[in-house]
Amino acid sequence: MPLAVTCSPSSSNIPKRRESNVAASIEVSISLLTAGSNGNEPLQLLAICAHLPSGLRTTVFDQLKPHFEDLDSASRCLRSFALISAGPEGELKMLSPIRHFVLNAHPMTADHHAAMRQIYFDIAASAPTQPSEEFTTKSTAVAAEYENLNVFLLHLINTEEPSQSLVDAVRAVSDYAYLTTPSVTLLVALRSRLDGHAIWLAECCTNIGQTYLKLCDYASASNALLQASEIFNRIGDRLERCILCTFARRMST
């Protein structure tokens, strides 16, 4: 019994100790990376990779080349330090502990952030949002980047002011998901940031309500569509979208 009492405090600290050791090891690797003659580009590439949980794919990698002096060299350098590895399709991947450490400690440069923003907005814009015979073919790019799209758009929602381009990207990805794997995650996150943007908020609530209907969550659908209906009423709903919202809300109850 005394032995158990003596050991239990130190045992409870083992996970924290291990986490601390992992963080220290990653920090040492990054310090060695930046201390040599490698320049800043490997660390800048690492910061980009940290935002992409399913990996930096070749198509996106190639689009980033104009924003680096030697992106291939930066990639080789990171692999030599075992900070990234190549996946089965050539994508550059990171282990989760490295990814979380880099996300917290090393943000992207403004130029690289802007480049990634445009690249992923373009991918979102390519997403098919209506059923068609070409749906699968048109879905290739967005399907491959779906996890990255969700994570990066969520990052943008949480870190920048709402804009038409961000709203359009979230809507496109959510409309695509509606036809494949319906999800309200991005829409709900966006809704929390749209105070003071009545039209965007009403449209977002409408999309949330429609998605909840698809998911057979009728109570949540009713709440979202009621909120949309009230906003459309308040702002004068010239396009009669309030009627559509009210009808959809009644259908959900």
Question: How would you sum up this structure, described in words?
Answer:
The chain is mainly α. It has a domain at 1-108. Helices cover 70% and strands 2% of the residues. It has 15 helices and 2 strands. The longest helix has 22 residues, at 14-35. Mean pLDDT is 87; it is low at 1-14.
Topology:
Layout: H1 2-12, H2 14-35, H3 41-49, H4 58-64, H5 71-80, E1 85-86, E2 92-93, H6 96-105, H7 110-125, H8 135-138, H9 140-144, H10 146-159, H11 164-179, H12 185-191, H13 198-214, H14 218-235, H15 241-252
Antiparallel strand pairs: 1-2
Helix pairs in contact: 3-5, 7-10, 7-11, 10-11, 11-13, 12-13, 13-14, 13-15, 14-15
Would you kindly provide a brief summary of this structure?
By secondary structure, the chain is mainly alpha-helical.
**SSE pattern:** HHHHHEEHHHHHHHHHH
- Strand neighbour order, sheet with most strands: 1-2
Helix content: over 70%
Q: Let me know the number of strands.
A: 2
Question: In DSSP terms, counting alpha (H) and pi (I) runs of 4 or more, how many helices?
Answer: 15
Which residue ranges are poorly predicted, with pLDDT under 50 across at least 5 consecutive positions? 1-14
- Estimate the mean pLDDT confidence: 87
Strand content: under 5%
Radius of gyration: 23 Å
Structural class: mainly alpha
Shape: elongated
Oligomer: single chain
- Report the end-to-end length measured between terminal Cα atoms: 60 Å
How is the main sheet built?
A: 2 strands, antiparallel
